[in-house]
Design brief:
Layout (H helix, E strand, L loop, with lengths): L1 E4 L5 H13 L3 E4 L10 H5 L7 E4 L2 E4 L1 H11 L10 H29 L6 H26 L12 H15 L9 H9 L3 H8 L11 H6 L5 E2 L2 H9 L3 H10 L2 E2 L6
Parallel strand pairs: 1-2, 5-6
Antiparallel strand pairs: 1-3, 3-4
Helix pairs in contact: 1-3, 1-6, 1-8, 4-5, 4-6, 4-10, 10-11
Bound molecules: glutathione.
Length: about 260
């Protein structure tokens, strides 16, 4: 059976799970020991030390986009990608903006709210930047959605599973779409699907685990990975000092070096 290394909170994992459920492909899950940055068994399989990673008969694949492509090629029915090259390019561009620019905003809110990386005025400044940026993303997403029922076009697919986990993240952090807006209506529409519901229900098992995060950071037992667009978000949104302090205290690390 396919094995998905995951964490239910990860929007990248959620993209993959929604596709697996839609395609009715059976899989088992495991949360790997991947996030401390230290050497682990999981690292032998995925040099990125990130989830999701999918193992199919001993073959390990990392990165949600690469995994989605693999699923589409190996289990083409039902297709998640729209039928024409132009539509496929369109939904892949939506995915790219969500995975890079948008994801970092929710990640930043988690750094402030759950990991309590900063408090007081510094936290308020980061939160207010995140709120403004989220409003910008919503405007862009609503233009992309236009008058369609789905980001994928006439039916649910790749465009939707690429957007939903991130919009759900905004809802979790209290900056979700306003009621009765096209985006809020789309959220309700996709939440009728069992693929989406099962993916979100799985987050419940970790709902109580957020309280311990600040202590984990304070104890020095854990260094968070700051990389790519996430690192950029913190720097651009007013958190330069957060990064410098975290590097000094060793509560922030970069991505693992490949060897
Ligand atoms: N580009 C990757 C990004 C995956 C990623 O960033 N996963 C996060 C969880 S949301 C992770 O495992 N981070 C490792 C860490 O925080 O230590 C993908 O699309 O799968």
């Amino acid at each position: 059976m396919l094995k998905l290394y995951e964490h239910p909170f990860s929007p990248y994992v959620q993209k993959v799970k929604i596709s697996l459920y839609e395609k009715n492909v059976a899989f088992e899950v495991e949360v790997p020991d991947a996030f401390s940055g230290g050497p682990t068994e999981f690292g032998k399989m995925n040099p990125r030390l990130e989830v999701p990673a999918l193992v199919d008969d001993g073959f390990a694949i990392f990165d949600s986009t690469i995994i989605l492509d693999y699923l589409e090629e190996k289990w083409p029915t039902p297709p998640m990608l729209p039928p024409t090259p132009r539509e496929r390019a369109r939904v892949r561009m939506i995915e790219d903006v969500c995975d890079t620019y948008y994801e970092a905003i929710n990640w930043g809110l988690m750094e402030v709210r759950a990991w309590k990386r900063v408090t007081g005025d510094a936290a308020m400044q980061l939160e207010s930047r995140a709120t403004e940026q989220t409003a910008g993303v919503f405007k862009w997403l609503e233009r992309e959605l236009g008058s369609s029922q789905y980001f994928n076009g006439a039916s649910f697919g790749y465009g939707d599973l690429s957007v939903y986990p991130h919009v759900h993240g905004s809802v979790v952090w209290g900056v979700g779409p306003k009621a009765n807006t096209p985006l809020a209506t789309w959220v309700s529409r996709v939440e009728e699907r069992s693929s989406v519901r099962k993916t979100i229900e799985a987050t419940q098992q970790f709902a109580g685990s957020l309280d311990v995060l600040p202590q984990m950071l304070e104890s020095g037992a854990f260094a968070r990975q700051y990389r790519d667009h996430r690192l950029e978000w913190m720097m651009r949104s007013g958190g330069v000092e957060v990064v410098l302090a975290g590097l000094k205290k060793k509560t922030i690390r970069f991505s693992s070096e490949v060897s």
